Amino acid sequence: MGEVYRAEDLRLSQNVALKFLPLSMTQDENARARFHQEVRLAREVSHPNVCRVFDIGEIEGRLFLTMEYVDGEDLASLLRRIGQFPQAKALDIARQMCAGIAAAHEHGVLHRDLKPANIMLDGRGRVRITDFGLASLAENLDAAELRSGTPAYMAPEQLAGTEVTQRSDIYSLGLVLYEIFAGKKAFDAATLPELLRLREKSAPSSISSIVHDVDPLVERVILRCLEKDPAKRPATALQVAAALPGGDPLAAALAAGETPSPEMVAAAGAKEGLRPNIAWMCFLLMLVGLAGVALLADKLTILSYAPLPMSPDVLAAKARETAQQLKCGSESLDSFHGFGRFTGYFDYVKQHDQSKTRWESLRSGVPPILVFWYRQAPVYLESNEFYSSQTIAPDLPPNTSPGMCQMFFDMQGRLAEMEAVPPQYDKSSEPAPATNWSALFAAAGLDLAAFHTVAPQWTSPNDSDTRAAWEGNWPGKPNLPLRVEAASYRGNPVFLKLVWPWMIPDQTHATRSGWSDTVQSALLILALFIVLFFGMRLAAKNLATGRADRQGAFRLALFVFLLTCSAGILFEHHVPTTHELMIFMIATGWGLIAAAIVWFLYLALESHVRRRWPNSLISWSRLVAGQWRDPLVGRDILIGLLTGVVWVVLERSSLWVTITWLNKVPLPPVDALDLIQLQGIRFSIADILLNVVIFVFGALAFFLVFFMLKLRLKKDWFAAWAMVLLFAIPAALSDNPALNFASAALLCGLGIFVLLRFGLLALLLTLVVNNVLEAYPLTARIFEWHGQATLFVFALILVLAIFGLRTATKGQPLFGAIAVED
Fold this sequence. Notes:
The protein is an alpha+beta fold. The chain has 26 helices and 17 strands. The chain has an eight-stranded antiparallel beta sheet with strand order 10-11-12-13-17-16-15-14, with helices on one face. Helix 18 (550-571) packs antiparallel against helix 19 (579-612), helix 21 runs antiparallel to helix 26 (788-808) and helix 23 runs antiparallel to helix 24 (737-757). The longest helix has 34 residues, at 579-612. It is elongated, with a radius of gyration of 38 Å. Mean pLDDT is 83; it is low at 137-144, 507-513 and 817-822.
């Protein structure tokens, strides 16, 4: 096809290679066209293992091209000179050849003349694939060109002139690999008929019969490449590289500029999890961390101050008894209850009490920061609000139907508020009987004689014919003024409200959102729509190009759908009416929305991460593929659980330092708790399921931001610093900026370390465990009634940790091997 010379580029002072079309072929239009095609196709492929072609020119009627000068020797002459290669060197050459061929195939280019003479090794041992003179784009190959090439290295289908595909190049690759490892040709024939007869009648000699120390896996890979049926050969050169001993399929794929498949990512990486001693250390550290979380919770949260002597069942029984005594509403058909918080007290204390013991009054239960609410009705309680969590609440459905009643109690069972709805129809014309206010005061734990009558100021939200009000002090607390507002209808109480000094009417302090809140909301909605719009476009593009992991996206979407539906159904108050259909529709609707969003976001992002940072997805890909008992999956589950617990310990420790040491006047106890878990195990399960769904999104968002910074800033450490600053700067705008900044930076750094070292799965577990433990009403008093939530979530974490421990050490003695000496 040409004559090649070494030359010097006088302008750049470097050696290049000049390839001239022979003078006898200069006037051959087919040869000239093939020469131009070689340049075009070689330029399509830019890869370290493919010889670069720079330009094409013509001088005195002779065509030439300039190309990279490779200071080395081609494999054909090397094999004649030294025979076979050592196995380690042969493997290195084989992987580089696979990477170069894969890069060509990635651009749709078939080499069609792969042989030792067209593969060079430079002075540093780096492979260069040369001579694309017979190469062609797969879709442009016509029947007349099928049999062009070197017969000794053609695939059977190429010799027969039936087809030429990527698998044809794989066959040629197998023949070259055979020579590299065996030191001789697989089929050595002097004539073409003899070559065809050898291929048809016999198989190549086994390499192990020629070279005794060859790895059997090498021989199996080569024999697969030499299958007569193209369908039985490896589909890509990367599959060949991945199957070779010690091969790194991800490195091979990245080197070839190809996007590794999800299966390739799952097959890559370590096959072992953790050594037993390391796994046990992680497990024990997590146990210590859980104990620390519980102890810190008893020093920081409302539950550590407020007394909780009565369980929900006891309080509900007390509520039913009080409703019966006060004739609150009509006969009950349905009821529901829960926990909540009275607000405003913390701000009031901050303004009126600067002592170091200002929060100690909470231990008496007065004023009641935590409250128990109870609702009953003569009809089934149903709410059609499109919520994804509990739909029966103090204001849902509205307390407006005749016979409905809702009450609020402090944690000692004393009535604090009551709203009852009187009958809608009353034909009685007699004067209303006197109201027994003493019974109402007794239910509130107050003595009517200790209060004096004042003019009423608060009105009942429902109809009433008598209003009354009193003022006094809470028994035993002369510095705590209390106002009692009440109303009745025909002698039956329908309204009670204990008015503390910090309470003001809702409509008085309700304010409209400022322009900044409006702008922030608008920007958030705009950002969401931008993400959805571009995410859908990117997902559609990935689907069209075939790069998207359809199976993984479907499994993740199904997982999110099932968890969202289950959480919605568990949160609901179920009644024997057609409202159950509405509950099912609402839960299914939220499940479909969540599944659709995570489906297209996963399709939009996963293939790009898989192309540029596949190591972060190895254990995730194995889990999504159903390999949940894989040791690497177990390792990342155990590490994620441990890191989530450590995260909470660090965060709570920082808060404890802030509250205890850095403030002369103590800060209020933490009240950002999700009290719904106190209502029972059903609600605890629902809340955990919802947290898992939320932090599938959270982990993907954290991962996406870091991945974008990593692409933009190139260096992992630079991206990590940028991520830490984004995460920690808002914390510096609060009280104690130095401590809060350091704490936020440390926690963000911990998340980045987990992501970089272990990947997406460990990060997801970290965020889920962190959020669950932060939101749960935890306590070290696990044998009290409210300790069941702590026991449940700790037991769940321990079960997962035991699973991670056993799976991460799979195949290894869990307690270590015992050495036995003779």
